Amino acid sequence: MKKQSNNIFKKIADKAYEYGFFSNVSTEIIEKGLNENVIRLISKKKNEPEWMLEFRLTAYRYWQTLEMPTWAHLDIPPIDYQAISYYADPTKKSKKQSSEIDPELMKTFEKLGIPLEERLALSGTAVDAVMDSVSVKTTFKEELKEKGIIFCSMSEAIQEYPDLIRKYLGSVVNYRDNFFAALNSAVFSDGSFVYIPKGVRCPMELSTYFRINAANTGQFERTLIVADDDSYVSYLEGCTAPMRDENQLHAAIVEIVVCENAEVKYSTVQNWYPGDAEGKGGVYNFVTKRGECRGNNSKLSWTQVETGSAITWKYPSCVLRGDNSQGEFYSVAVTNNYQQADTGTKMIHLGRNTRSTIISKGISAGKSQNSYRGLVRVSKNADGARNYSQCDSLLLGSHCGAHTFPYMDIHNDSAVIEHEATTSKISEEQLFYCNQRGIGTEEAIGLIVNGYAKEVLNKLPMEFAIEAQKLLSVSLEGSVG
Amino acid sequence: MKNETEYIKLFEENRNLIDSPCAALLNAQRPAAFAKFAAQGFPTIKDEAYRNSNVEKLFATNYGINLGRIKMGDNPHEGFTCDVPNLATRQEFIVNDCYQAEEGSRKSLPEGVLLGSLNTYARSHEALLAPYYNTLACNGDSIAQFNTAFVQDGMLLYIPRNTELTETIQLVTLLRSNIEMMSNRRLLIILEEGAKANLLVCDHSSNEKATLSTQITEVFLGNNASLNLFELEETGYANNRLAHLFVQQKGSSTFNHSSITLTGGFTRNGVYVSLEEEGAEANLSGLAICDKQQHTDNHTLVEHKAGRCTSNELYKYILDEQSTGVFAGKMHIYPDAQHTASQQTNRNLCLTSCAKMYAQPQLEIYADDVKCSHGSTVGQLDESALFYMQQRGIPKEEARHLLMFAFAGEVIDNICIDALRDRLHILVEKRFRGELNRCKGCALCKQ
Asked: Which residue of chain B comes nearest to A365, CA vs CA?
């Protein structure tokens, strides 16, 4: 049985990365390298106002004083920041009118299953598609506008809503926050901007689809979501990249501001190219994601399914400033082959009666390393804070690693903090039990793993949950026996 | 680097003074350790292992170091008692950093057992100790290197094959001086195959002046050896302690360790256990009861290098007033250390809004067929339990004590010597009632 199950896993594990194709879209790429002129050029290409250029330059100057952090449980090969092109625009060289999109581009997103055309209105999701450095198209903009919701690309927002951008950009993730935040603040190209006005419940899921296409470029997108008082929005994010032998850099920032009584749900299915079975190629994913529950009774929920990327360095965090605010973090991180992930969350309790929940499920297979790193901080004035953290790891194979590094800094006597972690593997008994009842080994593994991750998958919006389940079955299995 | 430079200068200028009373074995290790210390300096809060414990500031005080080995105070063998009722112990003393030999005859130890001054035995039994001394601590952090560079004496306990010590050894470390004082102690404990021993180490202090002790303990357990090590800290708020305990365990050996911090100033206990062969078992537990400005940091690392080893950790903190508790525990499971069972529990009680707790229970696992878990909580006394007791006529303060006592009891109950366990229950209860503020010549212990 062991041999048979091994074969099945091998078959699944060997399944190629399905989004690894490259689109032959004519793309304008600027010279490699990073200096003040490059930043001025990016800013000029995007026709940005002076204050934006200043913002970038300050961040760049600060970045130059920093060194790449080494504290994560990751083995990161040295990155030559001068060998990367910081801006690639696939829309530019197209001879068509700007209102139309290059058919190649269109095809790319069709292939990825992203409904850019309104004919897919039934899918009920508004999409902002970002390829390399530029937002290609945002759908349903008009419909959303009627409700007063702003959903557009970041470049457009800088032109059209400078007041909002100036007020909120960098207010949650300051350019001084960390190495990659400083880099992103200096060179960020595009991303999505969402503003939900007071009292509006966003009628559809908003979604951004990120794709790195051009070679030797980095993607540095920036997303800003502002949910004003009493509003609600659910936001989805997906990402893929072509298969290449070189590593590609992705350093993004996501900032979320949640005002009084508002709620934001942010879901990610991250499926960047993870590199091949020998660990060659793949995307380096260094992301800073943070939301601030500024208002009382506000709620922010992060859900992530991490299956891609050669290296993941990502800690979606909640700053619970408002009284009675809530933060949630649900994560499934899967690593296979030579993938490395160091991911987790930070819950910073500042307001009174704040609550946070952390559910993290790590699954490691092959020769991968999977770490959970999380911080729960309760400040002196955060009376009545409550946190529950659960970090489980599932090991498939004897060459992988699963690690847990939780930090608890408690400065208040009324806090109730719980943390627990377990590590286990799929046992022969579990598989045998399923086999006995006529369930094939392949299916049994799927059942067990999906059951293990269910708590998190249940939090995903329906469409994503199905995609995530499929992704899990593809990227997981490979070395149980 | 200001604090370091003074010690670097001190070492370079007084090398002869440090070396002259010491055995060649101790002196031989100094240059390499000193070079490491000089390169690294004292740890700062930027070092991950010390991020919540600022040890740098401890070294800012201008301490005296007794490099000349001047005899200080009376021999504690005459007059000082720190006995545990109903338990016959063999008392050994280290005053500051000098081992105090007892004059006159004592009950003899089983044949082959060596117990006494490390410096003396390093001279007479150099060949025996050389394969052990500083072989574990040499990989330690800069505090361990600092100790190796400056250490002049300590205690040795050597137990030959299949020998069992029925009598519990009690080592009392006394801090006595009229000036700010630094002492660097070293304990070397070697249990050959099948040997068994109980060791109780009590820290006491009889002075008001600030002291800083660095203590390195190296423990080597042969196959099937078993050691119960209890450490009890009952010093004063001005007494700071930086202790490292390195343990190397061979097949099927057992190591039980309890560290109880009742009173003290700044305490850092590093416990590093390496389970090197199959069947080794390590049980670590700790209890810290802190108030005022007390700072207690327990830092543990258990390395499972072979399969079928077991480790259990239980650490509890009760933090009152402005005290700080730090717990960082890591379990490192090496590849191929299959069938490991490892569990870690950390529970903390914060009693005031000024008390701070930092907890980092960590797992690093590279093998798949293992059973590992950890849990950590921070909370308060159960309001409904307090209310229940008050309803039944128990005053609130008394009810609080009962609950805290029960909370602490779990750690104390792990102690396998009945008499010592009973004694600790009494000491902890006294501590809660505030009767055990300071140990003055251990007046309280005498009863």
From this structure: B368
For residue A388, the chain B residue with the least C-alpha distance is B377
Which residues 6+ apart lie within 8 Å of B108 measured at CB? Answer: none
Residue A447: both structure tokens together? 């059942």
Q: Does the complex come out with an ipTM higher than 0.90?
A: no
Q: What is the DSSP string of A27-57?
A: -EEPPB--SHHHHHHHHHHTT--HHHHHHHH
Q: Given A398, A421, A425, which is nearest B373 (Cβ)?
A: A421
Residues A126, A132, A135, A139, CA torsion sign: negative
Structure tokens at B154: 């300590």
Q: Rounded to a whole number, what is the distance in Å from the CA of A101 to chain B's nearest CA?
A: 49
Phi-psi region of A279 (alpha: psi -120 to 50; beta: other; left: phi over 0): left
Q: Which residues have a Cβ under 8 Å from the Cβ of A455 and sit 6 or more positions away?
A: A330, A359, A361
From residue A383, alpha-carbon distances to A352, A410, A413, B146, B384 in Å are 5, 11, 8, 42, 19
The tens digit of pLDDT for each residue in B217-270 reads 999 999 999 999 999 998 888 899 999 999 999 999 999 999 999 888 999 999
Size of interface A-B (CB pairs under 8 A): 113
Interface test with B, best of A358, A380, A392, A419 (most B CBs within 10 A): A419
Instruction: Among A403, A410, A416, select the one facing B365 at the smallest CB separation.
Output: A403
Q: Is residue A235 within 8 Å of residue A266, measured between CB atoms?
A: yes
Cβ-based contacts of A415 with chain B (< 8 Å): 350, 378-379
Q: Identify which of B360, B369, B372 has the shortest CB distance to residue A407.
A: B360
Instruction: Evaluate if pTM is beyond 0.80.
Output: yes
pLDDT in tens, A390-439: 999 988 878 889 999 999 999 988 899 999 888 888 888 888 999 999 98
Angle at A454 between CA A450 and CA A456, to 5 degrees: 125
pLDDT-based confidence at B105, cuts 50/70/90? low
Tokens at A361, concatenated: 């499920």
Total residue length of chain B:
447
